[in-house]
Model the fold of this input.
Amino acid sequence: MPELTLEGVRATVPPGTTVLAALQNAGLSPLRHSLSGGARGALCGMGSCYECRAVVDGLTVRSCLTPVREGQDVWRLEVNCDG
Done:
């Protein structure tokens, strides 16, 4: 089972799990906040809305489409960068 780091905490998750599911299963929600402070998180679950963005190994990805891999370093976005 892959072991990764979710906001500095080591976690082991089943193979085939998405980064989004790993974050949610660890209780790490919301994924980010808008500039006005509103909680934002996954909406469509299929990569169309971009609301599930997270930082994986320093790159912003759509977490619902990104499978976990051994050794990943995952962080939620803290502010909506609209990018």
